[in-house]
Design a protein that fits this description.
alpha+beta; OB fold (Dihydrolipoamide Acetyltransferase, E2P); 4 domains; 5-stranded mixed β-barrel
Length: about 400
């Protein structure tokens, strides 16, 4: 069945109610349901009509919403609410006082929920719809959070209505729950044994840190692969956003390719220190791992790895005269700034008596003291540099400094 015909039919119904929705937007919703989720066209048409009816509050199009039921997107802290939604993700609680945590969604949006162990609520199952009455909304990390307590009534529903997650650009994410289409850009060394994988994902609008905690059934992301990530947790800490993927649905699109926007901020300064771990490093070859190996080719997750692969990077300190920042440059930026290609570095390491230390010394000599203009995103205590170039000479700035020093230009 031609989905454009269905989209036109839905568009005419909405226009007859005095509302205007672009037909291509309707068709996009239909295609997501039919082509991505395998929903029959007739059921997809009913779902889209129902969603648009709620979104535009069109009476007679999708039926009136029960007066005592709240739309999830409209929930605000310090309210007692009744909702109906589908559990779209579950994650492992980090406290014995919590029975379950996860994400529940309806056509309007999604919210994190917590079921207290003392609540005596039935065990919620992923993919099941529930009516939750007399729950409490509070705020957790600057986002609404639904609490199921002993006074809450939880009732399973027979509904099997598919949902349409709203995919947003990385730059538009806010604390709470979000869906994105991103590419796995970088993997970082995990600082905790509880972390399965952490690193950077991005889209044309920018990049964002992600974390996957160790849980049964969780798999790491594959570097360079594009993923549709639905209903991930968006956290904020110290003014920076990050994605927690444990409750989200991850769908790889191995044949896709997207451009990664730089995003982030501009930083300038002189490199005043080049840290150990710079230059040529060995990485774990296990798919999805990518961790830096020790001198004995040891991976903290996969142990000895004789079939390692080489990589280049710079870990350094950038000083602008007022503050200092830890920076991390990946291979492409390192090759450009240090003037050494990965293949050359490997050849040097294999033929020099000093081995990989010779590469470190050459990279250190090439970048130490250089004044750079860097662009990247600040994550935790480190700036992930996505591009860098030598700072250009500014005669006006030099003249101003000489004037301040009381000399002659």
């Amino acid at each position: 069945m031609d989905l454009s015909i269905i989209a036109a039919r839905i568009s005419q119904k909405i226009q007859s109610k005095g509302k205007n929705v672009e037909q291509h937007q309707i068709e996009a919703k239909l295609r997501l349901l039919v082509e991505e989720f395998g929903v029959p066209p007739a059921e997809a048409e009913r779902t889209v009509i129902s969603e648009l009816g709620r979104e535009y509050q069109v009476q007679g199009l999708a039926g009136a919403v029960e007066s005592d039921r709240h739309a999830i997107a409209e929930l605000v802290p310090e309210e007692w609410v009744t909702i109906e939604g589908k559990v779209v993700g579950l994650s492992t609680p980090n406290s014995p006082s919590i029975a379950q945590t996860g994400i529940i969604a309806d056509a309007s949006g999604a919210i994190r929920f917590v079921v207290w162990a003392k609540a005596g609520a039935p065990h919620l199952e992923a993919g099941q719809w529930y009516r939750i009455e007399s729950a409490v909304v509070d705020e957790f990390r600057k986002a609404p959070n639904l609490k199921v307590h002993s006074g809450t009534t939880v009732t399973p529903l027979e509904s099997d209505q598919p949902l349409l997650p709203t995919v947003k650009p990385v730059a538009d994410l806010k604390p709470g729950v979000g869906s994105v289409r991103v590419k796995m850009v970088q993997e970082w060394e995990a600082r905790s044994d509880r972390i399965l994988q952490t690193g950077l994902v991005g889209d044309p609008t920018g990049t964002i840190k992600f974390t996957i905690w160790k849980e049964d059934g969780r798999e790491p992301l594959v570097p360079g692969t594009v993923y549709d990530i639905y209903y991930a947790t968006v956290d904020e800490y110290n003014g920076r956003l990050s994605l927690i993927l444990n409750s989200g649905t991850l769908i790889p699109d191995e044949d896709a390719e997207i451009e990664i926007g730089a995003g982030g901020q501009a930083f300038s300064g002189a490199i005043v220190h080049v840290g150990q771990g710079s230059g040529l490093v060995k990485r774990c070859p296990v798919e999805g791992c990518n961790r830096v190996l020790s001198r004995q080719n040891y991976c903290p997750i996969h142990e000895i790895q004789p079939d390692f692969r080489y990589d280049l990077r710079v870990k350094a300190v950038l000083d602008d005269g007022v503050t200092t920042k830890n920076i991390l440059m990946q291979r492409e930026t390192t090759e450009s700034i240090a003037g050494i290609l990965l293949e050359e570095a490997v050849e040097i390491a294999e033929n020099s008596p000093l081995g990989m230390d010779e590469v470190f010394l050459r990279v250190q000599s090439a970048v130490m003291g250089r004044y750079l203009d860097c662009h990247g995103r600040e994550m935790d205590t480190t700036v992930l540099v996505t591009s860098a170039e030598p700072h250009r000479f500014d005669p006006g700035a030099l003249a101003a400094l000489i004037d301040r020093a009381g000399g002659e230009a």
